[in-house]
Amino acid sequence: MSSQPIDSRRHTYSADDPETALKYAIQHVQGSRAQIVEGVIQLMSPTWGHEKAIKKIRRQIEPKTDKIGCTVGAGNVDLPGTSNWYIPDLAVIPEKLEDARAVLADQTLLVVEVTSDSNGDTDRIVKRRRYAEFGAPLYLLVDQQEGSCTLFSEPGELGYTRSDGPRPFGAPIHLPAPFDLDLDTSEF
């Protein structure tokens, strides 16, 4: 996998390449954000509870990400060679990539997904497997239906080889280097 940022200005629509055409189209959906999960287009409309959990995580990690030169947000993550184009609830990337149209999973430092009734299994199973396959080093799953958090690490082609959790909301979860902080989950 390449560690170069994805620059959509170099990638134009091509009817001969369905993957590129689909990913080009999804970036131009007017009036909303959309992602592709295993070839299925999903419009993004998070709930307020969803946003609350993301806000709590962001506030805790931003002092550290500022010190290490990273950007925190919900930008595009491309999984080349597949029909997947994800918009994680939150991701941490190096500042040098913040102007890219999309990044690759292995360019992230942390990816966070918060489940909802409509996408819980997608976050628990599909995205966890794909993020590992494409090298995202840390995947934090905030499972609102189960009331727990799990941190997955050490990605491989068959999935993550380590996990910490599930830990019930209220129990801290440690984010390893480069963050090296205990995330307070009591208000998720």
Write up what this structure looks like.
With 188 residues, the chain is of the alpha+beta class. The protein has helices spanning 18-26, 48-68, 120-133, and strands at residues 34-37, 40-43, 70-73, 76-79, 84-86, 90-94, 102-104, 110-114, 138-143, 148-156, 159-168, 173-175, 181-183. It is globular. A hairpin with a 2-residue loop joins strand 1 (34-37) and strand 2 (40-43). It is 23% helix and 34% strand. The longest helix has 21 residues, at 48-68. It has one domain: tt1808, chain A, CATH 3.90.1570.10. It starts with 17 loop residues before the first helix and ends in a 5-residue tail after the last strand.
Per-chain topology:
Blueprint: H1 18-26, E1 34-37, E2 40-43, H2 48-68, E3 70-73, E4 76-79, E5 84-86, E6 90-94, E7 102-104, E8 110-114, H3 120-133, E9 138-143, E10 148-156, E11 159-168, E12 173-175, E13 181-183
Kindly estimate the percentage of residues that lie in beta strands according to DSSP.
25-35%
Q: Label the overall shape.
A: globular
What is the overall number of helices?
3
Q: Looking at this structure, what is the CATH superfamily?
A: tt1808, chain A
Which fold name fills CATH's third level, the topology? tt1808, chain A
Class computed from helices, strands and strand pairing: alpha+beta
Order of helices and strands: HEEHEEEEEEHEEEEE
Name of the top-level CATH class = Alpha Beta
Rg over CA atoms, rounded to whole Å, is 16 Å
Number of strands: 13
Number of domains: 1
Major sheet: order of its strands?
Answer: 3-6-8-9-10-11
Low-confidence sequence ranges: 7-13
Biggest beta-sheet profile: 6 strands, mixed
* Helical content band: 10-25%
